[in-house]
What does this fold into?
Amino acid sequence: MSNLSRWTRRSRPLFTLYLPVMPFVLFALFPLYFMLITSFKKNAELYDVNAVPFLIGRGVTFAHYELLSKDTLFWSWFVNSLVVSLAATAISVVLGVLAAYPLARLKFPGGDSFGVAIFITYLVPPTLLFLPLSTVVARLGLSDSLWALVVTYPTFLVPFCTWLLMSYFRTVPKEIEECAMLDGCNRLQTMVRILLPVALPGVICAALFAFTLSWNEFLYALVFVSPAELKTMTVGIFSELIRGDIYYWGGLMAGACIGSLPIVIAYVFFLDYYVSGLTAGAVK
Amino acid sequence: MQLKTLNGDVAKIAARGEAQARTLSDVLVRDTSVAYAFIAPAFFLLLFLVAYPFVLSVWFSLSDARVGETGAFVGLDNFSRLLSSAIFLQTLQNSIVFTSLALGAKTVFGMALALLLYRIGRFKRLIRGAVLLPFIVPTALSTLVWWWMFEPLYSVVNWTLKSLHLVNHDIPWLSDPYLAMFTVILVNTWRGLPFFAITLLAGLVAIPKELYEAAESDGAGPVGRFWHVTVPLLKPVLAVVILFSTIFTLADFNIVYVLTKGGPMNMTHLFATYSFVLGLQGGQIAQGAAVSLFLFPILLIVVFAQLRMVRKATTYE
It folds into this structure.
């Protein structure tokens, strides 16, 4: 009897917690799982209406990945995405650190208004401004070059980084910096040598999010850059692998897998940073 | 090691005392110029690439600009033409349906998921990590797999439903207007749910445990505790999450563009996709700008509401 009651007590979470959470986990993971197995299936199995779609039944193939490497500019798109994301991230984190510091630390005329302005631009969705921005990009002579993206991605990354870093900087005690300044450091030296090492988790978090947002960006890359060899990952796969009515589903899924991989790897290593970055905007 | 030297510095300053006051105030005077210098790069970036395009967008919407032409001032012509256009009114209706249903689903399921995640002890990191994944993966790419899952001939969803004998024909997920809207909402919910769940979870963790204990000793059951402790204390976080998501759900482009391109028969167009079709593919920049500006009033309302809440929160502190 006592054994039975102990068993029910111990297995209760199984029914009230783990069983109810399973549908959520399945819902979240199934599309990604399906993406992965589709990319390894042979066409014969892929386009067989009677085959069980959940598993790979007739052997694994790398043909879709080969098609991607040989017949498309896939690796150019990959490199473009990488270059643009790294450049946009570097610019945004530097500008974000610089802007967040005075907003979090100093009192100066116009400071509050600039804080509000940053907050508003943080909330401006890219879809609101892509039309006029394409005109601006054209006038700057940047259309159809990767510079168009390196210059425009910071418009949504800088407000995000600034906002995130402001809340991190505020948690660092002021006194630490005052000591350094009394020892003869100027503001920039103080920030770089004293504040940044302490607020490093915030900087990593901002960089990770900036990189993820740039890598995942779709609309600006679709609008500002049209030559096939200059496309980024997200746009290249979408627009170059769908030709008329012919869909290379295996290739599309292979591209989607490799396209998601860098982000997923970063995510696995830095899960906690992603979680804190995600909640910082809303909870702080 | 670092901490030790810091302590030493603090002690040094404490010992120096008031003699340093003048130097400190000197430093504070210099602050303004330092502040402006630090802010300048971000300021000019946002001025030229956000504020200026916004002004340009307003000008476009009040003109008859087309691709390559500056256009002349035409007043509110574009807006009145839009409001009498059947496609635009359909887009307006779609946007309301899409945003309210997707937000509703994300709020309800996000809350449920947050409550479950809050109590889970074992495999906590693994489960949280799995659940957050859809939010991190590139939307344009993950939407491709949803497209494949709802493909007319080889849809895995239809295969499952037919195998379970729930239906005996293929369901036209993307070619039926209402089902297409359902599908688009489903994918948006899939992508946005983690944001709701993880943020609400952070809010739940911040609620002091004593309050639950007090409520329990007053005889409140699990449901009572949820309505009288969790919901009121979670309200600020919930409000911020919903406001945030309102903008980004309403402004969605990727999911609709990849899955349906606004079709069938414009029944899934949102402001962003319709503005893209009009302004870029059709070359009618003026009309396209006017369409996307419909996002602006909602943006203003959200900004206003959020700032008010931030102010309120700081006065309580």
Observations:
- Chain B touches chain A through 106 residues (CB under 8 Å).
- Chain B has two domains: 2-61, 77-316.
- DSSP finds 14 helices and no strands in chain B.
- Confidence is low (pLDDT under 50) at residues 1-22 of chain B.
